[in-house]
Specification:
single chain; 146 residues; alpha/beta
C-alpha cells in the first residue's frame, strides 16, 4: 500500500481583492472577492449558456493584480433558490472553472460565472464543461480581427 499523495494546492491571501489558489501544474487562479471587481465584469463582455452566464473582462495594466493571473468569481441570486440550492450551484460552477480555466482561460482576464435557477444544479456535468468551453471561445473570439 502506497503512502497518500501530498497536496500541492495552497491557498494564500494577496493584496486586497483575491484569494489565490496556487497549484504546481496550473497557472495562478485567484477568486474575486470585492464588489467593484464584480461590477467591472458586469459592464464588460458576456456570453450565455443554458445553465449559467459568463461575464469576462480584460484587466487594465494599472490594476494591482498580476497580469499573469486569471481571476474568477461566482454568484447566484436568490432566484436560484434557498441557501442550499445557491451553494450547490456555486460548487458546481467552481468545479467547472477549476477544470477549464487553467487551460482555456487567458491570463490578465477576470471571469464571473452567474448561476441560473434550477438549471445550474441539474445540468449534466459534462454539458456544463462543454458550455464553459464554448462561451470562453465566444468571449475571446468576439473582438479578434481576421
Amino acid at each position: 500500500m502506497s503512502a497518500p499523495k501530498a497536496d500541492t494546492t495552497k491557498t494564500a491571501e494577496t493584496e486586497g481583492s483575491a484569494a489565490v489558489s496556487v497549484c504546481a501544474d496550473d497557472p495562478i487562479i485567484a477568486t474575486l472577492t470585492e464588489r467593484r471587481d464584480f461590477l467591472a465584469a458586469a459592464r464588460a463582455r458576456r456570453a450565455s449558456a443554458p445553465a449559467f452566464l459568463l461575464q469576462a473582462r480584460k484587466r487594465r495594466d494599472t490594476e494591482t493584480a498580476p497580469p499573469s493571473q486569471i481571476r474568477v468569481g461566482f454568484t447566484c441570486s436568490k432566484k436560484v433558490g434557498n441557501a442550499v440550492a445557491r451553494n450547490r450551484a456555486k460548487r458546481r460552477l467552481r468545479a467547472i472553472a477549476r477544470d477549464i480555466l487553467p487551460t482555456h482561460g487567458q491570463p490578465g482576464w477576470d471571469y464571473v460565472l452567474i448561476g441560473r435557477a434550477e438549471k445550474t444544479a441539474s445540468r449534466v456535468y459534462s454539458d456544463l464543461q462543454a458550455d464553459l468551453l464554448r462561451v470562453i471561445k465566444q468571449i475571446h473570439a468576439s473582438r479578434q480581427k481576421p
